[in-house]
Design a protein that fits this description.
With 291 residues, this protein is an alpha/beta fold. It has helices at 12-28, 68-72, 79-94, 110-117, 131-141, 154-159, 182-196, 211-222, 259-274; strands spanning 36-39, 46-48, 106-108, 123-127, 147-150, 169-173, 201-208, 229-235, 247-253, 281-288. α7 (182-196) links the parallel β6 and β7 (201-208). It binds S-adenosylmethionine.
Length: 291
Amino acid sequence: MNYRHHFHAGNFADVVKHAVLVRVVRAMQRKERGFLYVDTHAGRGRYDLATAARGDSLERTPEWPAGIGRLWVRQDLPELLADYVALVKTYDQQLGNLEPGTGPRFYPGSPRLVRELTRPQDRLSLFEKHPEEAEALRIEMLRLGAVGIQEADGYSGLRGQLPAKEKRALVLIDPPFEAQDEFVQVVRTVADALRRAPATTLMIWYPLTERARVDAFFDDLRQLGLPPTFALELTVVGPAHALKMKGSGLVVINPPWKLDQELAPAARWLAEALAQDAGGRAEFYWLVRES
Ligand SMILES: C[S@@+](CC[C@H](N)C(=O)[O-])C[C@H]1O[C@@H](n2cnc3c(N)ncnc32)[C@H](O)[C@@H]1O
């Protein structure tokens, strides 16, 4: 378990994931009844971007300037992205960024963003396996109510959460993809979650490093006899580029009604804004169509 999200916080993949997450939470909140949010790989909840360039021993190029950094100063954000950026800016200022004009200093992780939006009837259950990250997450969420945190494996932890007592749940599965069998674990976890609570909305993040692995992942998911499911993929470079992670994707199972249509203009805008070379694009794939 060497992965630390710190280096990647606020990068292009975080931008897409978090902007979609905010919209999905907003859509869940169109209904009055509360819901359970489970983050199986929660991270530390807060990232100080001023330290993002310092590793355990290596100096690294921070990734946020090519992500949230590119949106920070734009005046022409589509509504869906303006909502997400406004949340990040508020958080950054609350934490005391003294120079917000020059860029973000503090970036909220997925649990912190969701907690910013939740109502008294909503509840968060967070899993983080790495002891230091889990401790940082505990500190970050300390004074915020309605949050359960477990320093544990999120894949097995999810089992105990479903079906939710609220009878509605949103699950984010956002693994580091360090292990060879990560896709296999994800598929197994999705199968179990849908058996326990078939109406659960699941969002799964994945890297676009090898097309063939992603296609095999889609095939494995289809074998589960899924409810409506789409994937949104955004690439920042073309297939021949030297960059290892050429883009990232999000599978959304049981998406809120017409979510793809709401996301489409923002996804097209992001593909242009986040492109690092020719070949930046956004694409939707329906694995199982809404009827
Ligand atoms: C990509 S980061 C999560 C980022 C976070 N979801 C966000 O969007 O802000 C993945 C996290 O999963 C943690 N992790 C790795 N394996 C895990 C497991 N089996 N269960 C729970 N957490 C795990 C890592 O320590 C890391 O903090």
